[in-house]
Amino acid sequence: MYEFFNFGAIIFINNKHVSMAQGKLGDALKKADVDQGLSGAEPGSQAVYLAMCHLYFDSVEDFQNSFGPNTEEFLADIPNFTNTQPIIQISEVKI
Predict the structure, then answer these.
(1) Domain EthD spans what residues (predicted)?
(2) Domain containing 40 — which CATH number?
(3) Residue 14: what pLDDT?
(4) Tens of pLDDT, residue by residue, the chain (95 residues)
(5) What is the total count of domains within the chain?
(6) pTM of the model
(7) Do the Cβ atoms of 90 and 60 come closer than 8 Å?
(8) Is residue 75 part of a domain?
(9) Are 35 and 52 in contact (CB under 8 A)?
(10) In whole angstroms, how far apart are CA 31 and each of 5, 22, 63, 82, 85?
(11) Domain extent at residue 16
């Protein structure tokens, strides 16, 4: 999840960063989604996160084995679209 960055960066994330991840993660990556935050709960309020990228794997181990060797390259790409540090969370889809 990326906090407060240039809206033009959403194009970069979709066209470059996610494409790079798909190429590097290979068959371990089952699906990738990018959400653009629109607002907070109150009308007219700013979204907490302007973008979230969701990467789907069959298991935590598949994530670790595919993401781990590419971590430095992925992190080096982040300054191309934001000046904040990413918040990375591992979750499990339940529904």
Answers:
(1) 14-84
(2) 3.30.70.100
(3) 63
(4) 544 455 556 666 666 778 888 999 999 999 998 888 888 999 999 888 878 889 999 999 999 999 999 999 988 888 877 777 788 899 999 99
(5) 1
(6) 0.79
(7) yes
(8) yes
(9) yes
(10) 24, 9, 12, 23, 23
(11) 9-80
Q: What is the DSSP string of the chain?
A: -B-S--TTHHHHIIIIIHHHHHHHHGGG--EEEEEE----SSTTPPPS-SEEEEEE-SSHHHHHHHHGGGHHHHHHHGGGT-SS-----------
Max CA distance (Å), the chain? 42
Instruction: Report the alpha-carbon distance of residue 70 to residue 50 in Å, rounded.
Output: 24
